[in-house]
Every structure is written in C-alpha cells, then in structure tokens.
Amino acid sequence: MTGWRVRDYAQDDLEAVIRVDAESGTAEESPLFPLSDAVAALQALHPAVVATADEVVVGAVVSRVEGDRAWILRISMAPAWRHRGLGSDLITALEHRLFAGGVRTVHAVLPDGETGATALHNCGFGARPGMVFFEKRGRVTPQAVSMLASLGAELPPGGLWQKVAGMQREKELIERRLVLPLAHPEMAAQHGVEPPRAVMLFGPPGTGKSTFAHAIASRLGWPLLELFPARLAAEYGLASGLNRRFDEIARLDHVLVFIDEVEEIAGTRSGADAAAVGVVNELLKAIVRFRGQDGRLLVCATNDVTTLDPAFLRHGRFDYVLPIGPPDNRARTALWESYLARAGAEADSAVLASASEGFTPADIAHVARTVSQVQFERTFDTGTRARPTTDDYLRTIGDTRPTVSAAMAQEFARQTETFARI
Ligand SMILES: Nc1ncnc2c1ncn2[C@@H]1O[C@H](COP(=O)(O)OP(=O)(O)OP(=O)(O)O)[C@@H](O)[C@H]1O
Ligand SMILES: [Mg+2]
After folding, report:
1. Cα of 210 from ligand 2 centre, angstroms
2. What is the DSSP code (8-state) at residue 125?
3. 56 Cα–ligand 1 center, Å
4. What is the pTM of this model?
5. Which of 201, 211, 333 most suits a substitution to test ligand 1, by most atoms within 8 Å of the C-beta?
6. Nearest ligand to residue 208 Cα
7. Could you read off the pLDDT tens digit of each residue along the chain, which spans 422 residues?
8. Radius of gyration over alpha carbons of the chain, in Å?
9. Is the separation of the CB atoms in 64 and 80 below 8 Å?
10. Which residues pair with 64 in a beta bridge?
11. Which atom of ligand 1 approaches the CA of 261 most closely?
C-alpha cells in the first residue's frame, strides 16, 4: 500500500464506488444524501473523482452541480486508506474541476464524526457556525403514492387546519385528543397514552364534520382515504367490499380513513335484514383489525348518532365520540370575519354573528357567496367597485333559513349529553 492516483470518475467505476461507499461510513447517522442520489449524479455525469491504488478504487468524491453551487454528495474512503491525506487529495481534485466549471460555492453536509470531515477542514472548508440544519420528512414515499392513487386516496393540501374558522372548542379538543398523540407517539407512550385509532363525529348537517376530517389529515400530513359504501356495494357487495378495502388499507403506512354518513352502513342491527346485519358485523370486525396498527386514524361522521348500532359506540371501538355543533357566537364571528375579508366588505362581523344564530358554516358560506356575487355583478354593471355593507348581509341572512332550528339545536344538546365521549 504505497500511493494512490486520483482521476476523473469513469462509468465503469460505478460498482467499485458503491462498494467503497458501503465500507466507508463511520458515523451512526445516515448521510444527508442517500446513495441513490449519488448514483443518479454519477449517471448524469456530474463531476466526481476516484482514487485508485493498484487499479482498485479506494476512494471517491461525488458532487452535484446546481447552477453556480455544488453539493458534495459523498466522500467515501476504504477503511485502510484513512488518515493519510487521501480525502484531501480527492476533494482538492474535485474542487479544481468544480471551480473551473463555473461553480462559485461548494457545500457539504456530513453527519457528526463522519469520514471526510477532517479532509474538508484541511482543504479550507469552514464549518458554518450558527447554522442549523432543518429537515421535515414527508410521510409518504413514492411507492406509497401510487398505491394511494390506486385506492383513491388524496394527500390533502397543507394549511387546511388553519382555514377552519372559529370552532375553537372543537379544534382544541381535536388537537389535544387526536392530533397531539398521533403526531408525538413517543411522548404519548411515555405517559401511557395510547394514540387514538377511531373517532366518531356527530352533529347537524353542515357543521363542518367533513371539513374537520380533511383538516386533521392535513394537520398530520397523512393521506385521506374516503370510503364510499355505495361504490363498494356496487363493486363487490358491501360486506366483502369493506373487508377488501380494509385489507388494502392495512398495507399503507399512514392514513386517515374517512366514512361519511356512517349511519347508512352502521345502523342498528335489531330489526335489520340479514345483509345489513352482515355489513355491520363486517365493519365492527374491520375496526378491531384497524385498531391493531399504528399510524392510522378512522374518522366516521354522522348526522344522527341515535340510529347507530350501539356496539359501535361502546368503549374499545371508537376512542372518542365528539359533537360538532353549530358554531357559537364567537365561531360565527370568526367565520364572518374570514368571509368579509375575502369580499373586501365594510361590514360588522359582530352584528352578523348575532343575526345568524342557528346558521351552520355551510349556511354562512351560502350567504357570503350570495352577497359576493351580487356585489360582483354590481361592480361589473356600474364600473365602480361595490363593497358589501352590513345591511347587504343582513338582508340575505333574513332570506336564508338556518339549517339548525331551535328544535334541532335542542335535540343536538340532548344527544351530546347521551352520546358524547370526549
Ligand atoms: N369552521 C369552518 N370554517 C370555514 N368553513 C367551514 C367551516 N366548517 C365548515 N365550513 C364550510 O361549510 C361547508 C359545510 O361543511 P362540511 O361539509 O364540513 O359539513 P358537514 O358537517 O360535513 O356536513 P354534512 O353533515 O352535511 O356532511 C363546507 O363548504 C365547508 O368548507
Ligand atoms: Mg359531511
């Protein structure tokens, strides 16, 4: 083992470079750029150099050029050749090529204590004090993406949670009971908290149950897969369709499964026909299986919690049964504010909130949309920008029947007392 020779990487070297790379790591942390990135850079002929001794590759440095910057993706050295200046030789040779090719800055990120740090120091690379390396990992791998697509799942856009206006009480509850333990499973485990697996949302139409399901998935960064019982029924028959779908779901790493209007398939079994009983039984079994795996949450929603088969609401199936009621005054104010801002309106949100008691978010959205459309048409017709006033909104509120009547609100309060588990 005398000396080595440094030369440009050639395509035939690929296998040897991979071999040296596998022997090279000295740190526990895995490198920032995976080997696949280095291989891709080599194949795309980004600058790279190798060192050979007796025609055997004993070291390699691989880079990727992006405009006038380059990243050193890999510094690899066979163990027997460390601490002899090989790394410095390789880096020097590479940097000549990079700077000659128009690169102005070369970056490298190494795990603590990794092979190559000394060489970088020796070549005049300075560690940047005061820099912290941030990273956020997407939950979904590319393979999972194609599987998700084939199951009809979607990755909701970020920020949906922030867009849920008002509903402070519900948001706080969902945040604490569901999101936190799922997002921090280790910390939850230290306290003996088992992350929730299934939650039932109930409340009058249009109060935001579906909105919450999507917002929770967005918050967790998990894909959302909505099950449509009617489709499963048409394809396979409902009971076996559910069984199949939950089998497929078991293969996903992270997923929020959403079943809307679950009362349609989870109605009470007493007095039901044999097929309907079979479906309820299948769903109960599926939930038990579903609960056995980490990284998933089943969210079911219903307008009528009283018609569900009691077995669903028993402990051990759904961790929580959460009421999602019509928005209170504060939540309505927040909802109005978000719509007023969007419409460039000069209207009083507090007045509108008081005038819209019993309105659901869907009702408020309807009024806001109606007023905005009228103003848009007015601006178009007159050529001057029309701005909606409090009265414009109040008039439309007057023409709109609230979804949640006093009787419904009372019934919801009664159901909350009987069924809620929070
Ligand atoms: N907190 C909220 N902030 C802003 N918009 C909301 C909020 N809650 C609901 N909406 C809007 O109101 C409409 C109805 O909400 P959603 O469909 O989530 O209600 P739902 O409870 O699922 O109704 P249903 O029982 O009829 O299925 C949607 O357009 C949604 O975007
Ligand atoms: Mg809904």
Report:
1. 4
2. P
3. 66
4. 0.69
5. 211
6. 1
7. 568 999 999 999 999 999 999 888 777 788 889 888 999 999 999 999 999 999 999 999 999 999 999 999 999 999 999 889 999 999 999 999 999 888 999 999 988 778 788 899 999 999 888 888 887 766 656 666 777 778 888 888 888 988 888 888 889 999 999 999 988 888 988 999 988 999 999 999 988 999 999 999 998 888 899 998 888 888 888 888 888 889 888 888 889 999 999 988 887 777 777 777 888 888 888 898 899 888 899 999 999 999 888 888 888 889 999 999 888 898 899 999 999 999 988 899 999 999 999 899 999 999 999 999 999 999 999 988 889 999 999 999 999 988 888 899 999 999 999 998 88
8. 30
9. no
10. 71
11. 27
Cα separation, 360 vs 409, whole angstroms: 11
Could you say which of 1.10.10.60, 1.10.8.60, 1.20.1250.20, 1.10.3430.10 is the CATH number of the domain covering 329-403? Answer: 1.10.8.60
Query: Residues with Cβ < 8 Å from 282, sequence gap 6 or more?
Result: 238, 239, 240, 242, 243
Q: Which CATH class is domain 5-138?
A: alpha beta
Which residue has the CA at smallest separation from atom 9 of ligand 1?
208
Ligand 1 atom with least separation from CA of 334: 3
> Domain boundaries in the chain?
5-138, 145-169+197-325, 329-403
Ligand 1 residue neighbourhood (C-beta within 6 Å): 164-167, 205-211, 260, 301, 303, 335, 361-362, 365
Strand-pair partners of 226: 258
CA of 407 to the centre of ligand 1 (A): 21
Non-local CB neighbours of 54 within 8 Å, separated by 6+ positions: none
The length of the chain, given as a count of residues: 422
Which among 171, 210, 356 is the best mutation to test ligand 1's pocket, defined by most ligand atoms within 8 Å of the CB? Answer: 210
> CA–CA separation, 175 vs 161, rounded Å?
10
